[in-house]
Amino acid sequence: MTENWGFSGPDPELYDRIADLDRDGKLSLLAAAEACSNVCQAVKLAVMATLGDADSVAKEVALELHYGARQAEGQVSLARDLARRLPGTFGAMRRGELDPYRAAKVADQTSVPTDGQAREVDARVAGKITTRDATSVRRLVNRTVARVDPDGHARRREERERSRKVQLCHEDDGMATLYAYLPEEIAATIYTRIDRVARGLRSRGEERTLDELRADVFSDLCLGVACEVEPPRAEVFVYLDFLTWTGLRNEAELAGHGPIPAQLAREIAANATIRRVITDPLTGTPIDIGRHRYRAVRRHQRTGPGTRPGMPNTRLPPTGPGLRPRPRPTLGPGRRHRQHQSLRPVPPRPPTEGRTRLAPPDDRNGDAGDHYPGRSHLP
C-alpha cells in the first residue's frame, strides 16, 4: 500500500458545498486548489531530481506513475533543470504561485545557455512570471536570454536547428497529427502561403471552413496533387534597426516570434522588401510608418580582419595564373559606361518649402537627413 505522506486531500464534504458557494467563493476555491496543485507538483519534481542522472530514472518514473516514455523523460528533465539551474522558478512553484506548464517554458528557453547564464535569466524573470500566461512567459524569457547572452543567440539557433524534425502522432477515430519542428522563418512562410491560398479559395464560394481549407491545401501541396495555387509567395515581418542592418548592433525581431539572431535578420533583409518604421527611442512605440516599399540592394562586401558587414569591397580583383582582370570597355572621350552612370556626382537639391534638413548634405544624392512632414522620407 502506498503511503500518502500527508496528501490526504480536502474534506469529502467540500464537493457537496461547491454548488452553494457564490461566484467569488468559487473563484477563491479555484485559486486555492491551483496553488495546492502547484505545491504538490513541486514536491513530485523535487523527488525526481534526487533520483540521480541514470537513463533508467525516466523508466522508473514511467512505471510508477503510469506515464508514457516521452512524458516521463520530459518530467525528469524539467525536475533536473528546476532543481539545479532555475532556483527562483522552482521557488515560485513550491510557494504555489507557478504551475509546471509555465515553469517548463522557462526551462525550455534556458536549456541551451550555460548554467551561470540560466541562473542569471532565472533571477531576472522569477518575480515576473507568476502573473503571466505561458505565451507571455516564453516571450519574456526569450528576450531575457537574448540580453544576457547576445553573442550566443546565433549559436543557440544553430543548436536548435539541428533538432528540426517531423513527427507523426496517431489520434483517435482515424485521425493523426503531423508535427514539424522547423526554423521560425521557414515555418512562418509555409503557414502564410497555406493561409493565403486557403483564403483565396474561401473567397470563391467554398463552403469549407478556413481550418478545413488550410488542412486540404497543406495535404495537396505535400502530396503534389494538382490544384490551382499561386506561386510560392508569403510574408514574414522582420524588425531590425539601421545599426543592426549595418552590423553595429545585434538586435532584431521576427513578428509573432520574438528576438532572432541579427545575422539571420540581415540575411532575410538582403532579399526582402524594406519599409521604413520610425519608433520612439525610449518606448519603442511606432510613431510613423513609411508609405513606400523598397527592394534591398545587394553589394559586394569586404571580408576579413577589421571589416564589418555591409562595408563595400574596394579591393582589386585577384590576379595570378589563370586569373586576369576583366578589361574595361573603351567608349571614347565624353562617354561613360552604363554601369558607371551612378558614379557621377550629383549636386544637392536646394531646400524647398515645408522641408527641414536634419543633417548636412554630405551624401551623393543630397537626401541624407531629409524630412518630409506627413510622408515617407526614405531616399
What attributes characterize this protein structure?
mainly alpha; 379 residues; disordered C terminus; two-stranded antiparallel ribbon; three-stranded antiparallel sheet
Question: What's the quick description here?
Answer:
The chain has 13 helices and eleven strands.
3D structure, described in words:
The structure is a single chain. It contains 13 helices and 11 strands. It has 379 residues and is mainly α. The strands form 5 sheets. Strands 3-4-5 form a 3-stranded antiparallel β-sheet. A two-stranded antiparallel sheet has the order 1-2. The chain has a two-stranded antiparallel ribbon with strand order 6-9. Strand 1 and strand 2 form a beta hairpin. Helix 6 packs parallel to helix 8, helix 7 crosses helix 8 and helix 10 packs across helix 11. The radius of gyration is 29 Å and the shape is globular.
